[in-house]
Fold this protein.
Amino acid sequence: EAGVAQSPRYKIIEKRQSVAFWCNPISGHATLYWYQQILGQGPKLLIQFQNNGVVDDSQLPKDRFSAERLKGVDSTLKIQPAKLEDSAVYLCASSLGGSTEAFFGQGTRLTVV
Amino acid sequence: DAKTTQPTSMDCAEGRAANLPCNHSTISGNEYVYWYRQIHSQGPQYIIHGLKNNETNEMASLIITEDRKSSTLILPHATLRDTAVYYCIVRVLLYGQNFVFGPGTRLSVLP
């Protein structure tokens, strides 16, 4: 079974530029999560989707971050404009339903300079 | 905020059992205990979860105390590849619940 796919693996941008990350969850998984992991810390939830609807985006900085999950499959996370403090690993995860274990991708390491 | 407390770091000799403790003294009756680990430069990997009975799978064993206020993850024969950060998470199995990660325990398996 293929795992959660994320791209790109690494990205370096200058502050105030925009960036987008892509996630393809495990086939059939209805729930999709985006987490942000700052160096030395545990992952922090940014947004959770159930199919193509948002379940929780309470910790998403909506002035600069946006995410969508069209057709309830793939998802993109965008940052516009980026700040230095956005440097982190962005992890995508998926699960069959909201109550089952989540499977994580390898993440995208973003460096903002 | 995470509802669990774990030691910051632990060492274990290769081939010995690694016992990772987790305190979750405020756990509710319907909250499960989950364990994930994160090897360097990878995403978190699911290990095991349980409610109140001890659980075992091919990766590890989970021992939950009778009062459910703490648990221990046991890796029976640690190898160098088990070096990782281990996260203990408590979570209700309900629609909309996500996984809240704390800082975890950094386990170093030493040769």
